[in-house]
Amino acid sequence: MFEAFCNGAIFYGPFWDNLLGYRRRSLEDPTHVLFMRYEEMKAEPRDQINRLAEFLGYPFTKQEEDNGFVDEVLDLSSLPNLNGLEVNKTGK
C-alpha cells in the first residue's frame, strides 16, 4: 500500500494531485472550498474553529465567545474526548 501511495497508484488517484487541486480551488473560490491545514489547526485551534464556523455560515456570536462556547466546542471535538465516547469504544 505504501508503494502504491507513493506511486499514485491508488483507487482515488494520486494523493498530491488531489491535495494540490483542492488547494488551488480553495484559492479560486474560497466561499465554496475551505482548505484547512493540520499545522494551523494544531497551532491556532480557536482561530481555525472560528474560520470553520464562518465558512459554514454560522459564526460564533460575541456572547458565545465570551461565554466560552468556542472552548467548549474545541474540548468536545478533541481527540481525547472523541476517543472516550462509548460509540468509539463499542461501535454502539
TrEMBL record:
<dbReference type="InterPro" id="IPR027417">
    <property type="entry name" value="P-loop_NTPase"/>
</dbReference>
<feature type="domain" description="Sulfotransferase">
    <location>
        <begin position="1"/>
        <end position="90"/>
    </location>
</feature>
<comment type="similarity">
    <text>Belongs to the sulfotransferase 1 family.</text>
</comment>
<dbReference type="Pfam" id="PF00685">
    <property type="entry name" value="Sulfotransfer_1"/>
</dbReference>
<dbReference type="InterPro" id="IPR000863">
    <property type="entry name" value="Sulfotransferase_dom"/>
</dbReference>
<dbReference type="GO" id="GO:0008146">
    <property type="term" value="F:sulfotransferase activity"/>
</dbReference>
<protein>
    <recommendedName>
        <fullName>Sulfotransferase</fullName>
        <ecNumber>2.8.2.-</ecNumber>
    </recommendedName>
</protein>
<keyword id="KW-0808">Transferase</keyword>
